[in-house]
Amino acid sequence: MRQRREGDERGSAVVDFVLVLVILIPLVLGILQLALVLHVRNTLTAAASEGARHGATADRGPADGAAYTRRQIGDIVAGSFAEGVTARETRDHGSATVEVTVRAEVPALGLWGPSVELVVHGHATEEDQ
Questions:
Q1: 80 lies in a domain?
Q2: The domain containing residue 44 runs over which residues?
Q3: Sign of CA dihedral 3, 4, 9, 13
Q4: pTM for this predicted structure
Q5: Which long-range contacts (CB under 8 A, 24 or more apart) does 74-77 make?
Q6: Residue 1 lies in a domain
Q7: How far is Cα 75 from Cα 80, in angstroms, rounded to an integer?
Q8: What are phi and psi for residue 20, nearest 5 degrees?
Q9: How far is Cα 83 from Cα 79, in angstroms, rounded to an integer?
Q10: What is the pLDDT of residue 29?
Q11: Residue 85 forms beta bridges with which residues?
């Protein structure tokens, strides 16, 4: 017959496991959410830059660049992020440029949490005709 020792620690592994999970799960989910927001931001930035280059070619205008940006965003992440796309002609150091701006709301806490507004710009110098 086994004698019961004083201070027996049977079952303490379950408690330790739960205590670690309470800290570890929110940390991992936070890192994944941060990665999602950064992915969306980088995608929007790349699409805005590509749209500005597309709109700055000799046979196109800013509206073409905005449409191209919307298509790219819709193909890569989601069409809802492409609703705030605008494009305009500007002057930068004396040369004509096309500026594409993308404004999007990205959920900061999962799919249902509060949103973070991202504003990214893409610039390209217009080609001479």
A1: yes
A2: 12-125
A3: positive
A4: 0.78
A5: 76/43, 76/47, 77/39, 77/40, 77/43, 77/44
A6: no
A7: 11
A8: -70, -40
A9: 7
A10: 87
A11: 102
Angle subtended by helix axes 62-76 and 12-55, to nearest 10: 160
- Domain count for the chain, please give it: 1
Structure tokens, 21: 């999970």
Q: What Cα–Cα distance (Å) separates residue 31 from each residue in 34, 39, 108?
A: 5, 12, 11
Q: How many Cα atoms within 13 Å fall on the side-chain side of residue 103? A: 4
**Consecutive 10-residue averages of pLDDT for the chain (129 residues):** 61 84 91 88 93 89 91 87 88 88 84 82 85
Instruction: Tell me whether residue 63 is in a domain.
Output: yes
Question: b/e per residue, 35-46, with b = 16+ CB within 10 A?
Answer: ebeeebbebbeb
Tokens describing residue 24: 């570890």
User: What are the structure tokens assigned to 22, written together?
Assistant: 């309470």
Terminal Cα distance for the chain, rounded: 97
State how beta strands 84-92 and 115-125 pair. unpaired
Query: Closest by alpha carbon to 103, among 90, 89, 91, 115?
Result: 115
In a domain, 91, yes or no: yes
Specify the 3-state DSSP secondary structure of 107.
strand
